[in-house]
Amino acid sequence: MEHTEKLTRYTANFVDELARSGLTDVVISPGSRSTPLAMTMTEYPDMNQWIVIDERSAAFFALGMAKKKQRAVALVCTSGTAAANYFPAIVEAFYSRVPLLVLTADRPHELRDVGAPQSIGQIKLYGEYAKWFHEMALPEADDSMLTYARNKASRATHTANEGNPGPVHLNFPFREPLIPDFSLERLWGERNERSFYAAVDGKRRLDREQLDKLSRRLRSLQKGLIVCGPQTDKEFADAVTDFAAKWQLPVLADPLSQVRAGHHNKDVLIESYDAILRSEAIRKQLKPDFIIRFGAMPVSKAYLFYVKEHSDIPQFVVENTAGYREPSGNQTEWIYADATQLCHDLASQFAAGNDESEWLNTWQKMNQTTKNHLLSSDDMDAITEGEAIRSLMEVIPDESSIYVGNSMAVRDLDTFFMSTYKSVDVLANRGANGIDGMLSSGLGASAAGKPVTLVLGDLSFFHDMNGLLAAKHYGLNITILVVNNNGGGIFSFLPQANQTQHFETLFGTPLDIDFHQAVSMYGGSYQQPAVVSELKQALKESYQYDGLSVIEVKTDRTANMEWHRGKWRDIEKALLQGKE
Hints:
By secondary structure, this protein is α/β, with parallel strands linked by helices.
């Protein structure tokens, strides 16, 4: 059998097995050494191919798509630094538990470490950030090697998706010639519906004795607190709010918890806890008897202070399968069980006649007072960074998604995203908390087919402008709201702001860029509203526009800082005085 037939059958069986194992999408960064994988995946009839030239953008595009679809997406690139450019997104995927299947082409072994071009050390390139790494064998086409190819394809897909999802890396050494022969008979091998590794992934659940012990423990403590951090389970909101309502416990819901939006009961929801807990005096007043947290640590730094200041109280952290996410360093009791099922089980432990609601009422009154202050405006038509979020939440379509950037964007969403009955998913790259790749991540999510609004700052927009090519190439529908404070606005809230001699150069980093020209280059629609009424209208129009729509809001960093701090002072004063 000639080399080309061996190459073709080996690669085709691998690709066919990926599809059998549930993979539907691959993001390809064009190159030469990856020709066998790229061409075979493009030839395959049941796989969506997305061509993204810039590797860093490609990896974040795949990340956003996988996050939205909640299943693995494949990445394909050539050898050399192409694979290294995937690294930031792979780090993010690892920490935010997003399944990626990274398929890097490589030089064959005889061309490694001899000065051959585009040859770098790709063995375990991503280190601890890959759940599993495997160096694939050189292509052969006897039955045992075709079985081997299917084995690795199925195992890789399953490993990326199972447990805490994450990136898996397979490295493919290919010899030339690289072009497959798609005229071969039975190209895709022995095709059937069953994958090589057919896995049933069950959910963890406390047994009756464990549940009774936990329930008794919690009932012995009066003032409990439920905290919902970033998570993506669509069934969780109903379960946790039902549990909280029956036990009369307040629910502190992070904007990425998927609990602030939807049709579930929100009477127990405390969405303004970040603003409430900014006061040290209030944090002391609101000391709980226990905290039970679902999901990752919330965005709110004020909540982190609150937890650290009450390190003596029992804290329970629920993880669906495994993991250790507790940056406060407090003594913690871990519960490894499916979060939604645990909420159902604890709700079933409810004892009729439970009327211990004073603790919940206190939180509810503070939440309403805080919301009244956050929603008030001295100048009803001036666009502040908070007003940009409020305007967005007023007009965003039902059944859509927000993809929010880091730094100030996610913190403003935390503060000004009030509960809504609209069905709105909220996504973000909070694994490594970076600002890179945000445009590509949002566009990857939009490729799933539902409306997406990407909210980010000017530095994040600048950092990934290459990503806009995917919007032009595929005609993706996305609204991008850029809050432009001409630099790193979050640093104005940090101690570095007091270092006036070096602040602008090292931290403020003003760009002074006209983004309109960049948007035009990629064929997008651009608007720059000056007042709130214009912003709302621009947003409404963007949701009717077919393609890339960018809305830029210009704010002032110093004024924004003073406006936020003014709000927090007023809230603290009102809460301490018990005023509405």
